[in-house]
Structure formats: structure tokens, C-alpha cells
Amino acid sequence: MSAKRTDNSIEESQQHAQTRRSQGEFVRGISGFRYALGDADFPAEPGRYHLFVAFNCPWCHRVTLARNVLGLQDSITLDVAFPGRTDDQDPVAANLWEFNPERVASLTGAPLAGCTADTATGKDYRLVMQIYAAEGASETSVPILYDKKTSRIVNNESAEIIRMLNEQATALGSSIAETDRWNHYPSTQPVREQIDALNAGIYTDINNGAYKAGFSSDQAVYAAAFERYFAALARLESTLKSDQRLFLTGNNFTEADLRLFPTLYRHDPVYYLRMKLNGARVLDFPYLWRWLCRVYALPGVAQSSSLEHCRQGYFGRSWNNVVPLGPTYPMSYPEAYLHPELAGVSGFVDE
């Protein structure tokens, strides 16, 4: 059966991808598994589905964030890969995600809390690539939404997974009553159009834009991505400031907020240095900072990722394997996200 694509994915054009890469541009590939929860083969049921993720990966962070905010922690199980991929000494290959809870992190000198073995396939796979290989595929990426009942991959496109989790939250066994649960993509057409427009800009200029800047090997390509990234942050700052709204579309947390959060969560402690995005901190945008702290305070959000994993994953792959310890001013992260007042502007509605 051919994969069924949902209609919400924002993807990068693959036109002349190889040429663009050779000229120094980072070009993100396209996920290959695109089945939908609710199809005949994959009915939405509590306890049936599983997520394979890495806490340092922002695309995985979207998914873990949706799982937690929607109250699906007890219904959808989770395995977490080590944030640093395999090295040149690995018996299979380098640059692969692995499940290795005993692997020692250079940041801590000990195993990282949160890393797990593969608990879903029944095969005790060490490498994510083995999950794909079992279906005859050569992909190696996370996140993966996995059906434990049929031992099949449902979907590996984060944009589609978060939309499906929202649509099927009740059927999947959410612990939050529907009347009390955020609907990330409301049925009202004007709101959807607003979310779609925000999603497009956030993905192109911020989510993927961070990688366009940080992983470029061409100065001009990097500079263009850098400018677009900070121009997009300035636009969002202006939007939030215009009426002191709580979230990007108003007073409700939506998919647009969910998509933006993983990148801004990483910006000050990781991307500012690692992705060469040192034009400003989020802390320098008072309304965005307040927004970031407001989202971080939502139930389940703080547990959806780990800055320890992020630091290890992004910096641990550098040539000397040394992970920066900061920032520590005005205080360390993620503790800083508990202090919206650090933005230094009074009169906010949530003070």
C-alpha cells in the first residue's frame, strides 16, 4: 500500500539539491513514511503507538512537546536516542542515531539521564537505521511514530505527526478532557489560515533557517540565512507587542507556538554560538522572551526536551568534543526560562 500523505507538511524544495549542497547550502531532505493515524491500517487506539526521538533534535522536540501538552504521555510510549551519533569507530558506520543508555557523555563524564534502549520493536535494536531496514528503507532519521501492534513505521515527518496527535488526541487516550485541552489547529478557517501563514514563515526563516545559517559552508549563504532569521524574530516580536497577546495567534496556544518553541528554546544556550546566530539573544526581545517563558511554564513542556542533551548533541560532535558550559549570565539555562522578568520590561499581562 502506498503511503498516504497528510496535507500540512511544509517541505524544502529538492530542486537542484545536490548542486546547492555543493555550493555550501544546507538542504533538508524529505521524510519517506507518511501514513496517517486514523487510516484502516493505523486506527487511533490508546497504548498502541510509540515514538523514537532524540531530545537534542528540534524536529523531535515538536513531537515530544505535542505528546506532553496533549496529555498523551501515558498513551504513547517513548524511547530516546543518545544525543551524539556514532563515530568513526562504530562497527556499522559513523553519524547514526543509537540507543545506548550506558554511553558516556563528554559534558558530564557519565551516562545521560533520559537515554533509553529500544523498548518497542522487540528486537532490541541499537541503531535507528535498523528500524528502517526492517521495512526495507535506508532512512536514518528521527522522530519515528511506530505501531507496536504491526511493527511498522507510521510516519517520520514531524509536521504531520504533531497534527495527527492533535486530531486524534481523544481516541489515542489523552489524560486531559477535551474541554480542557488545547486544540492546536482549530477548525475555524481564518484561524487556520493565520496558523498556516505563521508556520510557513517560522519553518523557512527560523526552524530550518537556523540550520541554513549554522551548517552553511558559504559566507554569503550564511549571511542571507542570518538576516532572514533575525528579521523573522523581529516580526514576531512586533506581533506579540502590538496587543500584548499571550500566544502567536492570540490567547490560545496553537501549532504555530508549538513549532516556534523548539528553536527559541535552543537559541540562547546553543544556537547563538553553535549556529553562528549571535546577532541577539531571545532575551534581547522582551515580548518573545515573555512568550518563551509562558510556553515553558505550560504543563509538560519542561519535560519535553533537555538542554543537557542539546548541548551534548550540538557541541559534542565538534572537532575537540568539548561542550561549552555557559551561558551563566544573567543565570543558567533552563532556569532562566522560569524568570520572564529577566526581559526587563514591566507592564506585561502575565506579571
CATH superfamily of the largest domain: Glutaredoxin
> Which term fits the overall shape?
globular
Q: Quick one: CATH class of the largest domain?
A: Alpha Beta
Average pLDDT works out at 91
Count of helical segments? 10
List segments where confidence is low: pLDDT < 50 over at least 5 consecutive residues.
Answer: 1-9
Whole-number count of domains: 2
Helix content: 25-40%
**What would you report as the Rg, rounded to the nearest angstrom?**
20 Å
Describe this structure in words.
The chain is mainly alpha-helical and 351 residues long. The protein folds into 2 domains: 19-180, Glutaredoxin (3-Layer(aba) Sandwich); 189-343, Glutathione S-transferase Yfyf (Class Pi), Chain A, domain 2 (Up-down Bundle), CATH 1.20.1050.10. 37% of the residues lie in helices and 5% in strands. The chain has 10 helices and 4 strands, in the order αβαβαββααααααα. It has helices at 17-22, 58-69, 128-133, 158-167, 169-172, 189-214, 219-243, 255-274, 286-296, 307-315, and strands at 49-53, 77-80, 144-147, 152-155. Strands 2-1-3-4 form a 4-stranded mixed β-sheet. α2 (58-69) runs parallel beside α4 (158-167) and α7 crosses α9 (286-296). The N and C termini lie far apart (53 Å). Mean pLDDT is 91; it is low at 1-9.
Tell me the layout of helices and strands.
Layout: H1 17-22, E1 49-53, H2 58-69, E2 77-80, H3 128-133, E3 144-147, E4 152-155, H4 158-167, H5 169-172, H6 189-214, H7 219-243, H8 255-274, H9 286-296, H10 307-315
Parallel strand pairs: 1-2
Antiparallel strand pairs: 1-3, 3-4
Helix pairs in contact: 2-4, 2-8, 6-7, 6-8, 7-9, 8-10
